[in-house]
Amino acid sequence: MSQRPIIEIQNLVVGYDDRVVLENVDITVPAGEVLGVVGGSGCGKSTLLKAMIGLLRPMSGRVLIEGVDVHAAGEKELKALHTRMGVLFQSSGLISSLSLFGNVALPLRDYTACDHETIRRLVHMKLGLVDLAGMENLWPDELSGGMKKRAGLARAMALDPPVLFFDEPSGGLDPVTAAELDQLILRINQGMGTTIIVVTHELSSIFTITNRVVMLDGGARGIIAEGDPRDLRDDPPDERVRRFFRRQPRP
């Protein structure tokens, strides 16, 4: 894993209207890392993800991806940046009016000048990577929950981005399907060197796929712990971290 920063979050403050959700957030992600963003419900995980991918403008601070300020880039620079990152949303984000082929082909049509035959081959290859080869003509409503997640991942990977963002990838999946998705994420990271940011509260996924985690807390409005998840479980810095990683109820 390289130590070159591919993502830098600097003194970030984010929220909605006048309500601050997170403040003083600083995170540096080296290329090739799998970073987990963890914490209990309502702690700001999804809010942080939205700021990282450009869907929520910070109140202050910066998000840099490959040195480009996500919220200050010009139109041309931002379009180039969008080809360098992929996002798998919790709902998979598939467009119901498009076939599986159409969904995965969409970023290739929007961001490249590839001809139809090249797009066809790339779509076939990406679907093969997520074990959906030969299913190009299926529609989203014909797919199981796990298949939808893998199809969404194929679309996120269409442009071979160096950075992938996952929002609760195991959400709504049975334990076996969730474990299979975890292994797929690991294969992508290890085989392609892709930097991966995973927003999750699933402990099994956290211990399986992440190199490092940052733990958010709603009361603290920011990061309360950072490090190897096993270290945080075995030697928690405070009660909140201990309860989370050891699945202990509040008093």
Radius of gyration: 18 Å
CATH superfamily annotation of the largest domain: P-loop containing nucleotide triphosphate hydrolases
What is the number of strand segments? 10
When the domains are counted, the total is 2
Contiguous low-pLDDT stretches (5 residues minimum) are: none
Helix content: 25-40%
How would you describe this structure to a colleague?
The structure is a single chain. With 251 residues, this protein is an alpha/beta fold. It folds into 2 domains: 1-84 and 163-251, Rossmann fold (3-Layer(aba) Sandwich), CATH 3.40.50.300; 94-160, no CATH class. The chain is built from 9 helices and 10 strands. The strands form 2 sheets. Strands 6-7-8-3-9-10 form a 6-stranded mixed beta sheet. A hairpin with a 2-residue loop joins strand 1 (5-16) and strand 2. Helix 3 runs parallel beside helix 5 and helix 6 (175-192) packs parallel to helix 7. The longest helix is centred in the C-terminal third of the chain and has 18 residues, at 175-192. The radius of gyration is 18 Å and the shape is globular. The termini are far apart. The model has no long low-confidence stretch (mean pLDDT 92).
Question: Could you name the key traits of this structure?
Answer:
globular; 10 strands; alpha/beta; 251 residues; Rossmann fold; 9 helices; single chain
